Amino acid sequence: MSDIEEKISLDELQRNIDRAIAELPSKMQTVFLLSRDEQLSHWEIAEKLAIAEGTVKKQISNALKIISERIKPRLYGATYLISIHIASNIL
Question: If one looks up domain 3-90 in CATH, what number appears?
């Protein structure tokens, strides 16, 4: 796979991740982005949003599951294409 193809694949993956995050329920999205973008701890998020720390943990866990499920089919496709490319270069 060329550097350009790899860059396109990574850009596409990032767009898919961003799309999955945008589709999260509003409160879950807020918690997730505070964790990932602002790198706040579970405790800091809980304090900032006046919710239980356990709720923060659960929201992040659920967000990761949802995002993973939404991008998984695209990852399988990308993995398949990479495998074909590698096999064609070996043969």
Answer: 1.10.10.10
